[in-house]
Amino acid sequence: MLKILGKASSINVRKVLWVCAELQIPFVREDWGTGFRQTDTPEFLSLNPNGLVPVIKDGDFVLWESNSIIRYLVSRYGSEVLYPTTPTKRARIDQWMDWQATDLNRSWSYAFLGLVRKSPAHQSLDDIATSLTSWGQHMRILDSQLHATGAFVAGEQFSLADVPIGLSVNRWFSTPFEYPRFPAVSDYFDRLADRSGFAAYCKNGMP
């Protein structure tokens, strides 16, 4: 059975859990990370030298990096609907997944750590304001894309890209600040509520 190493509150672990729900993959999960088993031990570092969750064990196969993990899971256990093999369709999905992991994540990192996690190292009001401005600019890009598709981030159908993007949108709505109103993003988040893993692993009270 698939084994997932990582605490359930981690946004990157929740990507994996949501995909498992979509694909009905049975799994067992072990709590690793802050507040649980430490990831800087030789045992864990032998699995992921970065000391980060999630890590999966699928038989003898070990994999880390959340986006790589969900790509693997949908390729091994999934369907053409979530992650098509057609190069152009797959590239569009990968584009938005990579954008979420790099540009979007970097934009909200400081503000989220300061406003939600209350990190003492992230309490500069100027830096929080800069982060919020950048975050809003990136959410405007997402709103424009969702307005164009009228449905999901990579097109008319729910795809693998909507898992990381959906979790980031949840983080947007869960952060206490006067965020700009993006109607297409709001409609999209409501649309995600029809998915099997949404309530359990995205809109689950955890930003």
From TrEMBL:
UniProtKB keywords: Transferase
InterPro entries: Glutathione-S-Trfase_C-like (IPR010987), Glutathione-S-Trfase_C_sf (IPR036282), Glutathione_S-Trfase (IPR040079), Glutathione_S-Trfase_N (IPR004045), Thioredoxin-like_sf (IPR036249)
Domain GST C-terminal: 86-207
Gene3D superfamilies per the UniProt record, alphabetical: 1.20.1050.10, Glutaredoxin
Top-level class of the enzyme under EC nomenclature: transferase
Pfam families linked to this entry: GST_N_2
Entry's Gene Ontology molecular function annotations: glutathione transferase activity
Stated name of the protein: Glutathione S-transferase
Organism of this sequence: Paraburkholderia terricola
